[in-house]
Amino acid sequence: MSKRAGGRWLAAALAVSAVLTSGCVASVDAGELPGVYRNEATGAEIVLGSDGTFSATDVSMDGVSDPVDFSGEWDFLDDQASSDFIYLSIEDGGLGRTGGVQLYTSGPEKVYFNSDPDGPPTLELTRTAAQ
After folding, report:
1. List of residues 6+ apart from 52 with CB closer than 8 A
2. Mean pLDDT to the nearest integer, 44-56
3. Which residues have CB under 8 Å from 17's CB, separation 6+?
4. What does pTM read for this prediction?
5. Do residues 105 and 33 lie in contact, with contact meaning Cβ atoms separated by under 8 Å?
6. How far apart are alpha carbons 72 and 129 in whole angstroms?
């Protein structure tokens, strides 16, 4: 193999390695998730309790519907093949017939709703200090 071909191979291997590494996102630890998440622009807030309960205030998951309040229990699902998410099991018909929704994680500091899997997040919430 010539030096030129070896250099090309090395450059290609490094490029593939960089692409694969950039696609990896650090796993989220469920123990880090409890807290208050807020969207300052809309006033939406989700509180994930350390006891597995949650409350949501002024949340419009699709960015179009009127904001609603709901509560229930949450469970973190670490999906190795896809995106990690928090499943919000909604109590007492808080969203009509909807029994639960997925709240996706983007690290322990940010969560978001995404009503269109091919589109951008419809509501992002960032961890804040409880008030």
Report:
1. 73, 74, 75
2. 96
3. none
4. 0.73
5. yes
6. 21
Q: In the numeric block, which tokens belong to residue 48?
A: 């994930």
pLDDT band at 92 (very low <50, low <70, confident <90, very high): confident
- Residue 19: its H or E element: helix 3-22
To the nearest whole percent, how much of the chain has pLDDT over 90?
45
For the CA atoms of 52, 59, 87, 120, what is the dihedral angle to 10 degrees?
A: -140
Angle at 80 between CA 52 and CA 88, to 5 degrees: 25
Could you tell me which residues come within 8 angstroms of residue 57 by beta carbon, excluding any fewer than 6 positions away?
43, 44, 45, 46, 69
d(C-alpha 126, C-alpha 112), whole Å: 9
In the block, residue with structure tokens 């490029």: 15
Which has the closest alpha carbon to 24: 87, 110, 104, 83? 83
* 49-71 mean pLDDT: 92
